[in-house]
Design a protein that fits this description.
three-stranded antiparallel beta sheet; alpha/beta; five-stranded parallel beta sheet; 8 helices; 8 strands; Rossmann fold
């Protein structure tokens, strides 16, 4: 029997789609590292590497990290030994140039599976506006955890749950506008590939988790890999 093929996964989705939570759960269930751009930027700065110093200087100036720099950091992260069985990327790529750069990084590696969690804008607005944060301890309560139509108390400390200032409808719609402007071309870049699949994210988190697991298993099976996701409780 040949070597198992690594399970290399990118999970895409707009703000409020729950992709970060789903990526975290999937990676943990499969024993794979979840790699997010926010995490690796912080790690790069803490490492004191040449790339880290460059990132720190940019952040201190309040500027955005360029495609070239973030790609270099992702390349460095994907060269580590802990990704030999695969990885789950969350937050990268975000643009077509980043997607092309990731294709270059993946040359000579096992196939890349790309899954988009697709949710209608109106549902995303509803979810984000339904989020609450504890006024006392800062804990977040998602749209799935509480009924936003009635007052509720924090389960952790009993504090009052309030709306976040940046969760107004205008702010949410602007975030979505920017997301679609910047990200739709990248989704189009991937959409014609056999290893790309969009799934319905307008369901409960458990239903989305199951669909994500099933979809990745089916795509992985299409490559002839022996390393397929296993269902976890």
């Amino acid at each position: 029997m040949g070597d198992a093929v690594a399970l290399n996964v990118v999970i895409l989705g707009p703000p409020g789609a729950g992709k970060g939570t789903q990526a975290e759960r999937f990676a943990r269930a499969q024993g794979l590292p979840k790699i997010s751009t926010g995490d690796i930027l912080r790690e790069a700065v803490q490492s004191g590497s040449e790339l880290g110093h460059a990132v720190q200087a940019i952040m201190e100036r309040g500027e955005l990290v360029s495609d070239k720099l973030i790609t270099g950091i992702v390349r460095e992260r994907l060269d580590r030994a802990d990704v030999s069985a695969g990885f789950v990327l969350d937050g990268f790529p975000r643009t077509v140039p980043q997607a092309r750069a990731l294709d270059e990084i993946m040359v000579g590696r096992d196939p890349l599976i790309v899954v988009e969690i697709r949710v209608p804008d109106e549902e995303l607005v509803r979810r984000v506006r339904a989020r609450r944060v504890c006024h006392s301890c800062g804990a977040n309560v998602s749209a799935f955890s509480a009924d936003p139509s009635r007052a509720a108390r924090c389960e952790k400390c009993g504090g009052e749950l309030v709306s976040r200032a940046d969760d107004s409808e205008a702010v949410v719609r602007e975030r979505l506008r920017v997301y679609w402007r910047d990200t739709r071309p990248m989704i189009d870049y991937y959409s014609g590939r056999t290893m790309f699949q969009a799934i319905d994210g307008a369901q409960s988190p458990e239903q989305v988790r199951h669909m994500l697991l099933t979809t990745i298993a089916e795509l992985a099976a299409g490559t002839g890999t022996a390393t397929q996701p296993e269902a976890q409780p």
